[in-house]
Amino acid sequence: MRVVIQRVKSSQVTVNGEIVGKIGRGLNLLVGIANTDTDAEIDWMVRKCLELRLFPDEEGDDRWQKSVQEIGGDLLVVSQFTLYVDTLRSKDTQIL
């Protein structure tokens, strides 16, 4: 499993000119999952993304004090299978 995490003030996904997902302050997650990823690995990554301290505290003194959960932030999760592309064309790994 591979995840690119981006802290955002707002984010949206548009398909054919139509907004299909939109958030305010929070995390934009580009996620690639392969058939070799286990439920345990996915659960670990979910917890990691939710607990990462990427946001400032209320006073703004420390840039990395709060998690997305602690600020009541949003998540926009976007499937991004290209993160998991095996350029060697291995027969053992399939993209989900």
Quick structural summary:
The protein is mainly β and 96 residues long. It has one domain: D-tyrosyl-trna(Tyr) Deacylase, Chain: A. It contains one helix and seven strands; from the N terminus they run ββββαβββ.
CATH topology call: D-tyrosyl-trna(Tyr) Deacylase, Chain: A
The residue ranges in which pLDDT falls below 50 over 5 or more consecutive positions are: none
For the report, how would you describe the main beta sheet? 3 strands, mixed
What's the N-to-C terminus distance?
10 Å
Topology, number of strands? 7
Shape: globular
In total, the number of domains comes to 1
Q: Percentage of helical residues? A: 10-25%
Task: Give the percentage of residues in beta strands.
Answer: 35-45%
**Order of secondary-structure elements:** EEEEHEEE
Helix/strand/pairing category:
mainly beta
What do we call the CATH homologous superfamily? D-tyrosyl-tRNA(Tyr) deacylase
Helical segment count: 1
User: How confident is the prediction overall: mean pLDDT?
Assistant: 88
Q: State Rg.
A: 16 Å
Strand order of the largest sheet: 1-4-7
CATH C-level class is Alpha Beta
CATH architectural grouping: 3-Layer(bba) Sandwich
